[in-house]
Amino acid sequence: MQQKIPTVIISGAGLGGLTFYHALIKNKDKKEFNVKIFERESGPQDRWQGYHIGINNKGARSLINCIPSSVALDLPKAMPNPIPDVEYHGFSLTDHTGNLLLRPPSKQVKDVYEVAKVSTGFSAIITYRDRLRDILLENVPLQWGKKCIGYEETEEGVWVFFEDGSKEFCDILVGADGIHSPVRKQKMPELQIFYYGITQVLADVAVPKSILNRLIKFTGKGTFQETIGLNGDTTFVIFRLIPIKEQEQNEPRYRVTLAFGYPTKLDNDEQNPVKVDDNDPASVIEHVKRMIRKLRSECELTDIMLELWDLVPKTTPDPKEYPFKTYNPVQRRQLQDVNPLAVDVWTSSRVTLLGDAAHAMSPILGLGANDAILDADKLSQALLNYSPENYISCIKEYENEMLKRTSADVLKSRSIALRQSSPVGYFGSIFRNAIMKTVNFLMNFFDTNLFLRD
Ligand SMILES: Cc1cc2nc3c(=O)[nH]c(=O)nc-3n(C[C@H](O)[C@H](O)[C@H](O)COP(=O)(O)OP(=O)(O)OC[C@H]3O[C@@H](n4cnc5c(N)ncnc54)[C@H](O)[C@@H]3O)c2cc1C
């Protein structure tokens, strides 16, 4: 007798959920599933999906494994090939004056296929996250406006419930619904979000070439740059040196992701209460600039940071005028993560998780999306052995590997973020900088990235 085709429901169409969708369809000849994917957003333009992320060699390898060639052909739209001698795709860290502390080795490559081939060491391409999502959405019969609010697991399968009152039945439910995943909250209610005590403000900005050139003169042409101050304050500047396509624009502009982070307790000073209106971008930008002036010494790098934050739109821009697809309202946000191994027991069942839903992490090491894509690859491989009798062992095989790999990444990212947010003061910074420079020398001498070793 012919077996019925099992149904897999994916809740959440971010990078992880969409990659998983493609992987199941791509493997159809080996194991066929009826795949349904649901997303709470009302459509592809609903919400800001911007900022730049680094897709590394492991993420690139899994991405290429999972997507069909028709989607792979479009990858250069999201991750244009690196520009030799102009861009350096890798991470660099300087102090608040632009003094280089760390630049771990990163293999420079010509395209995403070469990144994927790097098997020892580290390589990455800075990628437009929103465009990667757009590419992954191509030809996916996504059901928009379907916010999952819970599920009920039975012997026969899983009922998935949506906010609009509808429900769907499946054999396997995959919660790929991000850090606030309702699927995780129901499956693992004891797995709590960890708050770092760090506030972060994020923005995507169109930056004139002259300002970026000044930054690069100081900190180099690394496309993922961080600076650390003396007071637990950090900045991120992530960019590609590819001008935005614009009409009647005299000076080329580049798309840049900015982030500024500082200890949250600085906002809770009872003596000097901070007045910020998170619903008013102008108020948040003023606050960021005030904090930069307060926490950083006067120097050229501080001036550049202030100028960069001045470029962030102070009111919600007209989408037709704005150079990016959607706009992110600048707000103070709390840095948080989820360590999947913070709970003792993870019982495998018909309901599983992937991506940020299982293991949201600090962006400091650039691992979150890469891990989500790796999850999609590993889970789709595990499900090749699916049968009505052994589905639990497929899910268990996936979860055993996923939990170990991603918990280590969450904790590594957490420990670095917390260390960087501890104030060191002037003398402490001399000691800190000396250690970092020594580590940098060793990493480059032995051609190894100590932060991202397995
Ligand atoms: C500034 C910054 C820089 C970063 N840099 C990097 C980097 O360099 N490299 C890297 O690998 N990662 C990076 N990350 C992390 C990365 O962006 C995330 O880890 C990644 O996007 C997670 O993908 P996901 O699909 O698991 O979750 P998400 O992208 O959050 O997608 C979840 C989807 O589920 C939907 N959803 C939510 N709730 C529901 C519901 N109830 N029902 C239905 N749908 C729902 C959401 O609308 C969303 O579309 C960075 C993050 C930040 C903030």
From TrEMBL:
GO molecular function list: FAD binding; monooxygenase activity
Signal peptide range: none
Coiled-coil blocks: none
Keywords carried by this UniProt record: FAD, Flavoprotein, Monooxygenase, Oxidoreductase
Sequence ranges assigned to domain FAD-binding in this UniProt record: 331-403
Entries under Pfam families matching the protein: FAD_binding_3
Name of this protein: FAD-binding domain-containing protein
Organism per entry: Glomus cerebriforme
